[in-house]
């Protein structure tokens, strides 16, 4: 990946207005096309260990750079990052667990899992996690996984959710409102010649977690596991 993507986004962050963006639209279009191509390559690579993702259209996975300003006090018009979400059950708008790439100056990252499930879906996820805690912890406590992604991150309840005993083993995992893990990388990770290989191997670590979570989500939507 060319370092130009981070240069462009850093400049955009300092000049987040329509006039600057229009003056640099050709740069943006070229970088976006390259990013879509990269996402397509990632999809093909992920499909070697997660066949559900085969045939996914890269364009359906890449997020728009234009911000939704309707309910935001921040009226800057553009996001200052490129991002894409890949899952075998749809593109960027899917509720299923998948693979996320986020290119932002100073804080690019890879992530995976399920982000902000609906309240009924979250309730079912917590129940299935409680019933299959050993299976989940075997995934997230594996040394390679923990070294790369740590553990779940994001907003948590201050106490156990209703219906779960306070002494539930590993009960802290039931307090999360999302089941997402992430790995913040240096920019050099993505500009190195082997970044696609390294990203593929990091995403490979996420496949068991996504499979575990998507079993529940499939049942939630009434699909055969």
UniProtKB/TrEMBL annotation:
Pfam families: DUF2461 (PF09365). InterPro entries: CHP02453, UCP028451. This is TIGR02453 family protein. It comes from Tannerella sp. oral taxon BU063 isolate Cell 5.
